[in-house]
Amino acid sequence: MIENPSTLLVICGYDGDEHQIKTFLPLYEHHNIPIVVLSPEDAPIKAMGPHICISRGKRAYTGQDSLNRQHLHLREALRFPFKHYLFHDADSFTITPQIPAYLYERDDVFYSNQVNDFRVPGGTWEDGTVWPIDFHEGYPLIAMQPPYFMSRGILEKLVEAGKDFSIKACEITPFIDFYMVQLCTKQHIKHKPFRDGVSCETVTENGRAIVSRYVREGANMIHSVKSEEAMNLLMEAYKERTK
Question: Quick check: pTM over 0.90?
């Protein structure tokens, strides 16, 4: 039975993420929906079980090449005629087999994990850095972090916003998670954070403890997990919650 009808799951990563994606693959496949893996042309993931693999753009963690690649990956996903799209990075997953039902209630909303920007316009950071008074003026002071969930209509608007590659990487935050803010703002797209999301590192013991607590309390849309050890710890927290 397909519990998440007319939804495409997209996983974005590069060849260095291949082992990690394979480790997490059961948590992608448990949705029982089609999967497409997108990677850069110069660091391609060529195979991932039975799933479609496509390579577009250049490998880059930050900067303009990473933003341009993100546009190309959004455009590739749009080629597949689905009503909804769930985008994961190689360090995110949805811990429940069923994608949360509330995400399907509003086709005019772009959903993501949300992290508030610690930078205050005109403020001074602890290392003495002074942020410009007009820092990200006109934009919400947030980062939109994976996963991303959207309707086809929203995806079309995101692709349209980036089609001329005119959105430039911010010198201070040259990250995809701010590029998504730029795209949504340009297209006046409504954004909401996941009701059941968490975005926190799981490399340290403290980070793993924080995310485990969120999972026990109901978090489903998880970021950022970079090891099998952390995944197993979160799955144990999920089992505790479902007893």
Answer: yes
